[in-house]
Design a protein that fits this description.
The protein is an alpha+beta fold. The chain has nine helices and 17 strands. The chain binds adenosine monophosphate and magnesium ion (MG).
Length: 351
């Protein structure tokens, strides 16, 4: 098995399609309703656990439908592939030209800039000119030359994005800048979907946007949602099972989304400080946080920062945890933050 396949986060409990019952030990049958749709280039799955005595099935399905609508809306707003999206309008801005943006976009961009600061610029949505440069390199089957890379690098840097809190505008301090929310948008969509479910009376649910997951409440009265991190060498094996309640988990380092130029494999995650895709050392990073936007951002950042990322995890408020899988001379190693090690009583190991 390819050792660098993505260790997807799998839902290990509640498998099966459609609608089915599970019993809680109190004897009340909880009903789990499940549906999935294709958005943002991935499968988005929602599972809702209801007590039929308290909330009707039709109401639960209606809540799910509204949550899917919200994800579709997010895709329309944040996609760089849609000319009419708010992000595309931002990306057409000239130097110092201001654009008033929606509160949703303002707050999300604000959060990503905050995390650029905290991750020493490892996570940086202004990476888009580099993403485009490497995209062109892939098409030409030739890595970009040093000169061009340096030139493009000059247009990257979160410090050149200005948000005006009062006027609610955004502008770039340099010509030719653009942003890409691909490292945070799926997590954000998950958070928004969870919010909509809650607003519509749902207390227990699991939303999974292609690996960006949030576990709301519990699966049953006496059972938490359980997610597993897949073994990177063996897709049928889990190396970690985690029980979560009101927490998000996300994994980055998707080696199914790499690209090849002239026979060499490159990651889709780019180090904005060097302009190059990240190297081969990090296989994957999984991050648990209070919200899915944060776990999405930090999982991408951890892939760039490697073990140094644990310093950031430690300095964040309590409750953020990470699992990092690295490879060195063919050997896979797992490193975990203290919270996970303690909670699951597992030692770091070589897989
Ligand atoms: P993820 O799958 O969440 O790790 O996000 C990867 C995506 O984020 C890439 O496909 C790019 O669109 C974008 N991206 C790449 N490098 C970075 C970076 N250093 N900071 C922020 N976003 C990035
Ligand atoms: Mg991410």
């Amino acid at each position: 098995m390819n050792p660098r396949k993505r260790p997807n986060i799998l839902l290990v409990a509640a498998l099966g399609a459609g609608l089915f019952f599970v019993s809680s030990s109190s004897g009340t049958p909880e009903k789990i309703i499940e549906d999935s749709r294709f958005f943002m280039g991935t499968v988005v799955q929602i599972k809702v656990s209801i007590d039929p005595a308290k909330i009707g099935e039709a109401k639960a399905k209606d809540a799910m439908s509204k949550a899917f609508d919200e994800i579709k809306r997010i895709e329309d707003v944040y996609s760089v592939y849609k000319d009419t999206s708010e992000i595309s309008r931002i990306n057409r801005l000239r130097k110092n030209e201001r654009l008033q943006i929606t509160d949703g976009a303002f707050n999300l961009i604000h959060k990503t800039l905050d995390y650029s600061e905290r991750t020493d610029g490892a996570f940086d949505i202004t990476v888009k000119p580099l993403v485009d440069l490497w995209g062109r390199a892939r098409k030409a089957n030739k890595p970009p030359d040093e000169y061009e890379l340096k030139r493009v690098l000059g247009r990257v840097g979160y410090k050149n994005v200005v948000l005006d809190e009062v006027a609610r505008t955004i502008h770039f301090k340099k010509e030719g800048m653009s942003i890409d929310l691909g490292g945070a948008a799926k997590g954000y969509a998950t958070d928004r979907a969870v919010h909509i479910l809650e607003e519509n009376g749902i207390d227990n649910a699991l939303v999974n946007s292609g690996g960006d997951m949030y576990c709301l409440g519990k699966r049953t009265a006496h059972e938490l949602w359980k997610v597993g991190v897949q073994h990177p060498r063996d897709r049928n094996k889990l190396f970690l099972e985690i029980k979560l309640m009101d927490r998000a988990i996300d994994t980055s380092g998707d080696y199914e989304r790499y690209f090849i130029i002239d026979g060499k494999r490159y990651s889709h995650i780019i180090d904005p400080r060097t302009g190059y895709p990240i190297g081969d050392n990090v296989v994957s990073a999984s991050v648990i946080a209070a919200d899915s936007t944060t776990s999405d951002i930090l999982a991408t950042a951890m892939c760039i920062l490697g073990e140094k990322g644990f310093d950031i995890i430690k300095s964040e408020s309590a409750g953020i945890d990470a699992v990092l899988v690295t490879i060195d001379a063919g050997r896979l190693t797992v490193k975990m933050s203290e919270g996970i090690r303690k909670r699951y009583d597992i030692s770091e190991e070589t897989l």
